[in-house]
Amino acid sequence: MPTFDRRAVVDAARDVFWQHGYAETGIAELEDATGLTRSSLYNAFGSKRGLFDAVLAGYLDDVVRTRLRPLGGGDPGALEAYVEQMRAAIAADSSRARLGCLLLNAGASPLASDDDDIRALVSGYAAEMRAAIRSAVADRRPDLSPDAVDALAGVCASLVVAALTLARADRDAAVATLASVPTTLESWR
């Protein structure tokens, strides 16, 4: 029976994986970050990959789904609030926002090209985000046809993905990309 807080270990490992990526993260870095020995990490998670999978699952539940949840609640301003929160974090140059999205980073890594599980996880995340944004667009623009809502939601989701991808390399471009979402929502016909 483990004598450590599994969630705290996953959170500590998340910061290391988020900063360095899966391939570039060494076991010694994970030991330092978590305070556990290699054998304890392997005992609890099976492997470095098992720990990474736990990190991605936790990130999806704790970070992504928490932020997406309000988008389906019927609030016509939910999408603008979601985008503004993200824009403000990136503009403030917070350490986590500067790292972009952990799931998108994993999807763009060499690991994803050879790993069906990573590709499925990232694809599922993208589908969840598109569905949440579609719901928010429908709430915000009830004047649009379902096809127009789908198209506008696709554009808005693409802008969010672009900004989260750019956040790591070009903060100003990421901020500008997110700032274009409200205008896009308003001007779409």
TrEMBL record:
Gene3D superfamilies attached to this UniProt entry: Homeodomain-like (1.10.10.60), Tetracycline Repressor, domain 2 (1.10.357.10)
The keyword Iron is annotated on this UniProt entry: no
Record key words, sorted: DNA-binding, Transcription, Transcription regulation
InterPro entries reported in the protein's UniProt record: Homeodomain-like_sf (IPR009057), HTH_TetR (IPR001647), Tet_transcr_reg_TetR-rel_C_sf (IPR036271)
DNA-binding region extent: 26-45
Domain HTH tetR-type, residue spans: 3-63
Pfam families (alphabetical): TetR_N
Stored PANTHER family: HTH-TYPE TRANSCRIPTIONAL REGULATOR YJDC, TRANSCRIPTIONAL REGULATORY PROTEIN
Name listed for the protein in its UniProt record: TetR/AcrR family transcriptional regulator
